[in-house]
Amino acid sequence: MSFEFKTTCEYQKYFTPSHDLVRKSARQFVKKEILPYIEEWEEACEFPKEMYKKAADIGLLGIGYPEEYGGTPADIFYRLAVSEELMRSGSGGFCAGLGSHNIAIPPILSMGTDEQKKRFVAPVLDGEKIAALGITEPGGGSDVANIQTMAVRDGDHYVVNGCKTFITSGCRADQLTCAVRTGAEGAHGISMLVIEADTPGYSVSEKLKKTGWWASDTAEIYFDDCRVPVENLLGEENQGFYGIMANFQYERLMLAVMANMTARLAMEEAMRYSKERKAFGKPLAGFQVTRHKLVDMATLVEVSTEFTYRVAAKIGAGEDQIKEVSMAKNFACMASDRVTYDAVQIFGGYGYMRGYLVERLARDNRILSIGGGATEIMKEIISKLM
Amino acid sequence: MKILVTAKRVTDPDMKIKVRSDGAGIETSSMSFKVNPFDEIAIEEALRIKEDKGGEVIVVGIGSDKAQTEIRYGLSMGADRGIHITAGSDPDSDAVARILVKIVEAESPDMVLLGKQAIDVDDNQVAQLLAEYLGWGQACFASKVSINDNTARVEREVDGGIEVVDMDLPGVISADLRLNEPRYPALPAIMKARKKEIKKMTPADLGVDTTSKVVITQLAEPPQRKGGRIVEDVAELVKALKEEALVI
Ligand SMILES: Cc1cc2nc3c(=O)[nH]c(=O)nc-3n(C[C@H](O)[C@H](O)[C@H](O)COP(=O)(O)OP(=O)(O)OC[C@H]3O[C@@H](n4cnc5c(N)ncnc54)[C@H](O)[C@@H]3O)c2cc1C
């Protein structure tokens, strides 16, 4: 082991030229396949299903996943680069919908058997099937240990009864990585099942109408004596809680990335607009108040992004970052709350009108501090680890 | 079919260029770079020929260490291996052609396919010079290429139409804008391209003197466009055209 860094610059850069090539391809994809249609998809509250296949074909869905299940092994910053570029579509909903596998398949990879991975991971990375994650229930999302959906063993099946809500890609998912209660009350009675959408007793609500993330289909899912084969159990019975929690670390990192990009896009838009728009005979950027506001926005974006990268680097190196990733998520969401609010302010009335990117960013931003563990829950975690 | 293609590193055409304050070049510190778009088209065409006929596609890049990125881009698109001629600054068109001659001599390709020009200096000379030095046929500004055994039928974009030429191979073809629409590399291909071979050489290794015959003495920004103005009537328009615009 060397005591010195080879160059100081090595420790400052997270992205190599090879990451940049991946970024460029993702950017091309967004420019050609998404941006021309995104407005339409947002208004329709849905993007075409074929986008999963298209994204899979150029390797966007499989980046960072094992080769034997159709992925392309890559370090964490490749995934960050892809997420950042997809966010340049300006639609968090599209990213959440297209990327729902990123929360749905890691538990299968970490807890599942080779057979399960072949069945439930490969077709998803191939864009053939859509995967969703089902944890939250109408009775509560934060208190994961208290979920009520029951799975009772009956021969070689589990009979599942209950309900999940707010499930991203829920309307179109072919398979749900689902938390169920197989044992006693509390965290130690929870198991993870992969439930296929064509199982009798599985039904889906209408698309839920949301404040933002319009392009993603969010649904409630009902289980009515839904018989799930025992071979769909991930890992051991009653050990599911740890799988769920391990999954959260990555989900929170990605939500931090989304928040940073939401803020960055809002800042870029505001920067551009403040040079164009005139009031009292001069561009908005001519007022010191505006310039200072832009400075505050840019500072928040840069600081938050750098911290998120730092946490990502440590996660990538295998370090435990439960506390830090929770901080990164909270900080990024605080930054994007501020920045999207101020961007709308700079746009004035136009910022409140549909068709302006900052209007959508401000709406899409709101979910980020609720989903994947609300700000308060992050603070609970952090306080326990301080 | 063995095809040699080029990948020049140029400033991203989507970015605004700023002239350096000393006028000797452009500000590159904040610029992003990419493969010359015409070279990208040439690489795409070579890959299509390879997919149809089999063979090998070799990407050549000339320039600083960073020019490796553009060679890797070509490899990510699907080319088989790369050759990187390291040079501190970009050699002029004649030196590039003489470097390529040496590579052709070593590799004996059936065809050299390159962009008709690089979008940074717009010289449009390398393909023609190379064909001349090699004593090969040339078909520049190709908008369609079809290969038949040892000949290539090339549709060339010329003033007022398309000229069709049959050319014996080996030969030199330069790609015009409408030849094809290049693919963008899939992510798995980018990851695999990291491991493809890039052979590094210097112009000195090849015995080529790259002393520039062309020297840029001064670069200047184009004059700023003045805003338009609405005139009252024809008389005022004619007066303005005569006295201000000096066009009639
Ligand atoms: C668009 C969208 C997509 C989603 N996608 C998915 C998905 O794909 N899969 C999935 O499983 N879930 C999904 N969710 C659900 C999301 O994870 C939950 O909404 C979130 O975890 C919060 O749960 P809840 O809504 O039940 O709120 P509650 O748990 O009822 O919390 C309500 C409020 O109380 C606060 N609170 C709760 N407990 C405490 C405490 N101990 N101390 C202090 N404050 C507390 C919370 O922070 C929050 O502010 C999605 C939600 C939305 C809106």
Order of helices and strands of chain B: EEEHEHEHEHEEEEHEH
Percentage of β-strand residues of chain B: 25-35%
| Overall structural domain count of chain B | 1
Name the shape of chain B in a single word: globular
- Can you tell me the CATH class of the largest domain in chain A? Mainly Alpha
Query: Mind summarizing the main beta sheet of chain B?
Result: 9 strands, mixed
Distance between the termini of chain A: 31 Å
CATH class of chain B: Alpha Beta
Tally of domains of chain A: 3
Low-pLDDT runs of chain B: none
The CATH H-level superfamily of chain B is HUPs
Number of strands of chain A: 10
**Total DSSP E strands of chain B:** 11
In the sheet with the most strands of chain A, the strands line up as 1-4-5-8
SSE sequence of chain A, one letter per element: HHHHHHHHHEEEEEEEEHEEHHHH
The number of helical segments of chain A is: 14
